[in-house]
TrEMBL record:
The lineage of its organism: Archaea, Methanobacteriati, Methanobacteriota, Stenosarchaea group, Halobacteria. This is Glyoxylase, beta-lactamase superfamily II. It comes from Halobellus clavatus. Gene3D superfamilies: Ribonuclease Z/Hydroxyacylglutathione hydrolase-like. InterPro entries: RibonucZ/Hydroxyglut_hydro (IPR036866).
Length: 228
C-alpha cells in the first residue's frame, strides 16, 4: 500500500450529506488524503484541499457551480490550482497565511471573517514557524459542520487503537484544544480519512482530552504503519 498516490480507476466517496460531499482520490493510499465540496448559503460549491480524480467534475456538478477552491493548510497545495483553473475560479487563502500564493499557478483571493458568502467562518487552528504549520479550518454554526484539514484525522496513522478520531502525531503533545473546543459540531470533516458524521462533538472532546494519554498507542500504530 503506497503512502501517497498509486493506481486508481476512480475516487471513493465519503461524508455525503445534503450540503456537501467528500472523496478520497486514491483509496488504497495510507495517507487517505480527503477532499471536500461544501455548499455555501448562496448555493456556490466550495472545494476544499482537492486531490483531482477521474469524473470529479460530475460529482461537483451534483451540488452546483464551483465558487472557489480553498486551501486549508499551507502544504496542502495538492491539485488546488488545477481544479481552480479548470473551473475558472480563484484559490482562496486566509489573509494571514503567508508564503503560499507564489507556489500556486492560479489566481488567489484572500478572505477575512467569512469565506465569500458561504456562511463558513475560518478557524485559525495553528500559525507557527516551528514546526512550519499554517492551518485554517472552516465552521458553519447553523449547519453544524466543522472541517479540520490536518490537526485531527481518522486515517490509521492519526489514531491510537480504539480511537475514532486522532490528533496529528506531531501535535499530540500540544493538542489544539483552544482552537477547537469552542465548537459543538454535528459532523467533523478531516483532511485525512472519512469524517465523523455522528456523535461528533463528544468524539472531538474525547480526542483532545486523551491526546497525550494515548500517545504511546498512537506512536506505536504509526510505526507499524510505516513498517508495513
Amino acid at each position: 500500500m503506497p503512502m501517497k498516490g498509486g493506481e486508481t480507476d476512480g475516487y471513493r466517496e465519503i461524508d455525503r450529506w445534503d450540503r456537501g460531499v467528500g472523496w478520497i482520490a486514491y483509496p488504497d493510499e495510507q495517507m487517505q488524503r480527503a477532499s471536500h465540496a461544501l455548499v455555501g448559503d448562496e448555493g456556490g460549491v466550495w472545494v476544499i484541499d482537492p486531490v483531482d480524480a477521474p469524473d470529479l467534475d460530475e460529482l461537483l456538478a451534483e451540488f452546483g457551480d464551483v465558487a472557489g477552491v480553498v486551501l486549508g493548510l499551507d502544504r496542502h497545495k495538492r491539485d488546488a490550482a488545477a481544479v481552480a483553473t479548470r473551473h475558472e475560479v480563484p484559490v482562496y487563502l486566509p489573509r494571514w497565511m503567508s508564503d503560499v500564493e507564489r507556489e500556486l499557478d492560479a489566481p488567489v483571493e484572500r478572505y477575512g471573517s467569512e469565506l465569500g458568502d458561504s456562511g463558513f467562518e475560518p478557524v485559525k487552528i495553528r500559525d507557527s514557524s516551528l514546526p512550519r504549520w499554517q492551518e485554517v479550518g472552516l465552521v458553519h454554526r447553523e449547519d453544524g459542520t466543522l472541517l479540520v484539514p490536518e490537526a485531527v484525522g481518522t486515517a490509521s496513522f492519526f489514531c491510537a487503537p480504539g480511537e475514532r478520531l486522532g490528533v496529528h502525531p506531531v501535535l499530540r503533545p500540544i493538542p489544539p484544544r483552544r482552537a477547537l473546543t469552542r465548537y459543538d459540531p454535528d459532523r467533523i470533516l478531516v483532511g485525512h480519512g472519512a469524517g465523523v458524521m455522528n456523535d461528533a462533538a463528544s468524539t472531538l472532546r474525547r480526542t483532545l482530552d486523551d491526546a497525550r494519554t494515548n500517545m504511546p498507542g498512537a506512536y506505536g500504530q504509526m510505526i507499524r504503519e510505516l513498517l508495513s
